[in-house]
Known about the structure:
By secondary structure, the chain is of the alpha/beta class. The protein is built from 10 helices and 9 strands.
Amino acid sequence: MDIAVKREDLLHPQLGGNKFYKLAGHLESFRESGMRRLLSFGGAFSNHLYALAAAAHDLGVTSVGIIRGEQPERLSPTLQDVADLGMKLVFISREDYRNKTDPVWLDDLQQRFPDAYVIPEGGGDITGSRGCMAWATGAVAASPWQPDVICVATGTGGTAAGILAAGVSEQVCAFLVLKGSTAETFDMQRGILTRACALARKERGDLPALLLETNYSCGGYARFPDELRCFMAEFEAETGVPLDPVYTVKLFWGIAHKARAGHWRPGTRILVLHSGGLQGRRGYPQLR
């Protein structure tokens, strides 16, 4: 088994990783829209808001972050960074935050910020997925060989859909970092395939196979048990490649487990996409 890693954590100190690709299409649409500021959603350690604030700062435009939860006495390191970059922070209750995809609620928000171009949480719509198609194509072009499998971490499925739509591998193995019921993960898999088909303008049978791996969430989103922490320390010491505790550590941990279990046949060529997100380490004091 051969493994190559495309390290998007090295792309840019703030805009690195898949967030760069998921924002690319939105920023182009923003430029064409005539809107004057960018608005999106996220939590206290959102990689997406971190990248968006940096992009807005570089473009010389204002930005707004709708933050999940009440305003704390002290901002997280991520939120302090985005505020320093000029992003206006608007804290809302978790109950209200659940409405972030509701058309009526979004219309009210748009009236409150009439000059804002609204980007979904994580950039995770079809526009964001389209940028990930370019990521996959570029990663394969830079690979030392044509991969049999592309492995990536996934949360909402937007990145996986874009990679699948690019059609550059026999299989896309997406390691889910959050825990869901059987029905929820089935719906996610169906959503990934549906979005990928729309992007590629193909039938499902024309796409690479999708394996949505659900066994490595470690109990839920941002869960970081001792076993995972030990793996991360050993991996970084051996390879020198830094991981984040939410996404990429679960990706590499899952790959290691599957390799030891003999999941892939000898000679399989695996391309791993490192999606960055290293600023999220600051949410874990022992990793700072």
